[in-house]
Specification:
This protein is mostly helical. Helices cover 84% and strands 0% of the residues. The protein contains seven helices and no strands. The longest helix is centred in the middle third of the chain and has 45 residues.
Length: 183
Amino acid sequence: MEKRSTYSRLFTVFFRIGLFTFGGGFAMLPLIEKEIVDVHGWARRDEILDIFALAQSVPGAIGVNTAVFIGLRLRGLLGAMAALLGVVTPSIAIILVIARLFSQFQSNLHLLRAFSGVKAAVVGLIAAAAWRAGKNGVVDRFGLLVVGVAFLLSAFAIIPIIWVIVLGGLGGILHYRRKEGVQ
């Protein structure tokens, strides 16, 4: 496969994802998974879950971070830049248009109602992504326990998200080392 075509494909795939995703990075995950795993075969399903976990654990939006990681993996720094430009260009363009027409949008009842429906659909997309990640990522009772504790800690804002991730990682290291008998 020619490098130039891969760069343009990375840009185009992530441009489409950025253009048709409302609700932020988590709402992008089902589209990213479908495109990267099912359509283009750039990663396996278990690999995309690892990429999502890594993208969540570094600063920035998970959808943007995922695009960068995929691009970097496929074509290095230039691939990362192509994917990044693809995923952020639609948002920048839409924000510029909305900023220009904000006063007209603010009072449009039909548009406000449409966005209410879009918000509800985004919740469904995020729930579907969580369900798929859970099916592939929770492999035993310990994993189920970590999911429950992480949900409670983050849903009720008991501790910052970064600590939920760090504690989950440390808990996994300790649990599986003990389980395998490694000291």
